[in-house]
Amino acid sequence: MYIRGDHAELAVGGSLDVRSAADARTVLHSALDEGAGDLVLDLGSLDALDATGLGVIMGAHRQAGRCGRRLVLRNVPPQMQRLLVATRLHRILAIEGGIGAHPL
């Protein structure tokens, strides 16, 4: 897993899973604490996501709210779109272009 970017936009690639969750959580929370405005999380290069990774994203969403910011997901892969719809998290998370921006 890699995360590149700054306090305004981060690109996540590889696998966001139980092995990478702690590092991802640290990077996301630091970016949220240090910046202002929306934090865009570009998931276009994300290959795999498990329940722990989804928990990291939800934790970042909550942290953003505490910081007066908003976490915005961009380029959400189709398999993650299906997961967000199945868990109804697409109703809670800000998703650029909404669900369905990519063919399911």
From TrEMBL:
It comes from the Bacteria. Pfam families: STAS_2. Residues 1-104 form the STAS domain. SUPFAM superfamilies: SpoIIaa-like. Belongs to the anti-sigma-factor antagonist family. This is Anti-sigma factor antagonist. It comes from Streptomyces polyasparticus.
